[in-house]
Amino acid sequence: MKHYPAEFKRDAVELFQPRPGATIKQVAADLGINPETLRNWIRAAGAGRPRGRGETVPAPQSPLEAENAALRKKVRELEEEREILRRAAKYFAGETRW
């Protein structure tokens, strides 16, 4: 895996944001990086969630929408944690049986 400086990552995200017609694939090709790498940087920067052909979903506009988005994220995290614990319990229960 290549490691890119934080400044390069910021610049790459800034190149993508103001160009509504540009796709992640095009910008990544221009920079010589993998499109998934750029997509991850955009997500990490909170610049909207990339969709399909470079479209982005705008950030929530009202406080209620922002709260809903935060709650949905928390639900996803809790569901993932529950699944991990369920699998761990299943693993350890199988290990203790003779």
Protein model, in words:
A two-stranded antiparallel ribbon has the order 1-2. The protein is mainly α. The mean pLDDT is 80. It folds into 2 domains: 52 residues, Homeodomain-like (Arc Repressor Mutant, subunit A); 39 residues. The protein is built from 4 helices and 2 strands; from the N terminus they run αααββα. A hairpin with a 3-residue loop joins strand 1 and strand 2. The longest helix has 34 residues.
Question: Secondary structure elements and their pairing?
Answer:
Layout: H1 6-16, H2 24-31, H3 35-45, E1 49-51, E2 55-57, H4 63-96
Antiparallel strand pairs: 1-2
Helix pairs in contact: 1-3, 2-3
Q: How are strands sequenced across the largest beta sheet?
A: 1-2
- Radius of gyration from the CA trace? 19 Å
Mean pLDDT: 80
- Considering the protein shown, what is the CATH homologous superfamily of the largest domain? Homeodomain-like
Give the biggest beta sheet.
2 strands, antiparallel
| Annotation, overall tally of beta strands | 2
SS-derived structural category: mainly alpha
Proportion in helices = 55-70%
Spell out the helices and strands N to C: HHHEEH
CATH topology of the largest domain: Arc Repressor Mutant, subunit A
**What count of helical segments does DSSP give?**
4
Please state the second-level CATH architecture of the largest domain: Orthogonal Bundle
> What number of domains?
2
